[in-house]
Amino acid sequence: GNHPDQYLMDGTAAIVPDGFTFRSGVTTVVDAGSSGWRTFPLFKEQTIDRSKTRVLAFLNIVGAGMRGGAYEQNVDDMDPVKAADVAKEYNDFIVGFKVAHFEPAQWTPVDNAVKAGVLTNKPVMIDFGGGDHPPLSIEDLFFKHLRPGDIYTHTFTELERRDPIVDVTTRKLKPFVLEAQKKGIVFDVGFGGASFDFRQAIPALKSGFYPNSISTDLHTGSMNAAMKSMLNIMSIFLAMDMDLQRVIAASTWHPAMEIRHEELGNLSVGSVADIAVLNLREGKFGFWDRNGYKLKGKQRLECEMTIRAGNIVYDLNGIADPEIIKSGE
Question: For residue range 238-271, what is the model confidence (pLDDT) as tens digits?
């Protein structure tokens, strides 16, 4: 990032993918709206084209992308037709549209993103709520604005600016959330720096509600706080008694289906050889959220080896034939 005054669009809080992917067993990342239709060509040139990691993207409904501040509040820059045109032009890389960081209590960004989604037959991902007004209703969002296949991220957040899935007084899951999931609304973790709270997650999972997909929302803030890495979040869900098979599915095949790239996220014959070899370490481990609430766990996932398109790209303990990774190559 060359622009320290910008937030996640070509800024210093954004990260070069190869620096954190392979060591965590990750071979494909989906950028969650850093760039918009005006800035996507730059994002493609600097990040997609220069990464060994497969990089796909949600296109921000804001033309300028996540530049921060007033740029992301500019309703005039939320152009569904131009966004759809760019998504069609770069169809192999753009998987859908993103709404984020909008503060006024109005539906314009959501509705414009959905319009772009309709024009391209692609999903939208919603990072919802901002400002100091009462938050917009997630029930309205799920049943009046989104389509089946659209994605709600930061599912387990508990911030005043957002309408939570678990009632903060009764600590019970709101019944319409399970209905929304049955209708086809996709619930994504998007752990981030401030978007995961055990007070939301634990009661939700106890009610039989599980996220469709597990994701990081990785940037320099979240990776050095409670979130850490994809494997740490997967370990957190294991510690909350989500079973291993379900955790793996939510981290691989489900996200591939959500972004309509069914050629990814599976080990079928003929699939690309993107493989993570994980070790489930037994011991005493601790996990925490942004409020310092702690959860103890007995298992932690670690990445032993990552294979990308048939090549070993990461090997923690040198378990491969040492001729395969030669130093200096």
Answer: 999 999 999 999 999 999 999 999 999 999 999 9
**261 in helix, strand or coil?**
coil
Based on the number of CB atoms within 10 Å of its own CB, is 28 exposed (0-12), middle (13-18) or buried (19 or more)? Answer: buried
**Which amino acid, residue 294?**
K
pLDDT at 91: 98
| Strand ordering across the sheet containing 54-60 | 28-36, 54-60, 94-99, 124-126, 151-152, 186-187
pLDDT for position 5:
55
Read off the tokens for 302: 């670690």
H helix or E strand, kind and range, residue 280: strand 275-288
Instruction: Of 37, 146, 149, give the one whose Cα is nearest residue 93.
Output: 37
Output helix, strand, coil percentages for the chain, rounded to the nearest 5: 30, 20, 50
Reading the block at residue 206, the tokens are 């106890």
Virtual torsion, Cα 64, 69, 74, 80, nearest 10 deg: 40
* Residues 231, 303 contacting (CB under 8 angstroms): yes
Phi, psi of 197 (to 5 degrees): -140, 125
pLDDT tens digit sequence for 70-103: 888 899 999 999 999 999 999 999 999 999 988 8
Give me the half-sphere count of Cα atoms (radius 13 Å) on the Cβ side of residue 187: 22
**Would you say 100 and 66 are in contact if contact means Cβ atoms under 8 Å apart?**
yes
Regions of the chain short of the pLDDT cut 50: 1, 329
Strand pairing of 311-315 and 294-308? antiparallel
Q: Are 100 and 38 in contact (CB under 8 A)?
A: no
Q: How many helices (H) and strands (E) are present in the chain, helices listed first?
A: 10, 9
pTM metric for this prediction: 0.93
Q: State residue 14's pLDDT score.
A: 67
Written as six digits, the tokens of 244 are 């291993």
